[in-house]
Amino acid sequence: MDVYGLTGGIGSGKSAAAEIFEDCGIPVVSADELSRVVVTPGSEGLGAVVAAFGEGVLDENGELNRRKLGAVVFKDPSLRQKLEAILHPRIRERFQDVLTTLAATGHKLVVYEVPLLFETGLDKQVKAVILVSAPEAQRIARVVARDKLTEPEVRARLAAQLDDASRRARAHFILENDKDLAHLKQQVLDLLPALRSGTIPRPAGEVKDAAPARPAVPPPPPPARPAASVPPRPPPLPKP
Ligand SMILES: CC(C)(COP(=O)(O)OP(=O)(O)OC[C@H]1O[C@@H](n2cnc3c(N)ncnc32)[C@H](O)[C@@H]1O)[C@@H](O)C(=O)NCCC(=O)NCCS
Ligand SMILES: Nc1ncnc2c1ncn2[C@@H]1O[C@H](COP(=O)(O)OP(=O)(O)OP(=O)(O)O)[C@@H](O)[C@H]1O
């Protein structure tokens, strides 16, 4: 089964692109969603988070207070790494379970939406990387408008992620999401034949760094002068 990684910085439009893939009948698994599944109340994952960060990260219903935990871990890289060390192996395990189920139901390809695809080295394990890209200011404005995070909170997450230029250099396909959703949708539709056939271009960074390619067919030699163009020798002069 072919796994395509879908990634991008915060607010780039990963979920928007994921929805379009799903509308096209391609299953999408979201690492953000799995990161919620592994900390549901009563789960072993939530127990591990509480053991590491204390009961203070739970709300009155015993659920993880994600905003509170986010405020803690995005201020301190060592605490963020501590949380990632708890959650990432559990997310990976869950993903393998979902993959097994999808393969058993006859699916040939799946899109895995992972914000930290490059940061976790997962880009090396997928068939190809699809990047959703948009200018930083636009991404911040979108997330703030979504009313989920404040601008300083978004900036703190940005700081914990790879920059977009590095992502662009390493992605096989780039969806430019700096216009409306119809523009994004058209790019996803244009991408489908390549994903279905497995035709993967080289990342822009690799192409730029590579030695100039030799022409596939050497240029033809210059044409030989046609014999007919040689003026005929004049007949020998009569002997005196
Ligand atoms: C800190 C948590 C509880 C905050 O939860 P919250 O509901 O506010 O955010 P959510 O999980 O929906 O993530 C929203 C976006 O934040 C960014 N983000 C999330 N985790 C991280 C991280 N560890 N590093 C950088 N950016 C991150 C991503 O762009 C993501 O799409 C949560 O993000 C979390 O558990 N993070 C650690 C797990 C992780 O690395 N998840 C990313 C998927 S691999
Ligand atoms: N092309 C677009 N035009 C207008 N709004 C958009 C566009 N793309 C995405 N949005 C909106 O911007 C917000 C962020 O998009 P989305 O949630 O898809 O990003 P994301 O990369 O999944 O974000 P996060 O990293 O926070 O999970 C959403 O409210 C979404 O509806």
UniProtKB/TrEMBL annotation:
Where in or outside the cell is it found? Cytoplasm
Q: What are the boundaries of the region Disordered?
A: 200-240
Q: Which InterPro entries match?
A: Depp_CoAkinase (IPR001977), P-loop_NTPase (IPR027417)
**What molecular function terms (GO) are annotated for this protein?**
ATP binding; dephospho-CoA kinase activity
- Write down the top EC class of this protein: transferase
- Give the E.C. number(s): 2.7.1.24
User: Quick one: which residues bind ATP?
Assistant: G11, S12, G13, K14, S15, A16
Known PANTHER family for this protein?
BIFUNCTIONAL COENZYME A SYNTHASE-RELATED, DEPHOSPHO-COA KINASE-RELATED
Record-stated family: Belongs to the CoaE family.
Q: What is this protein called?
A: Dephospho-CoA kinase
**Encoding gene (name):** coaE
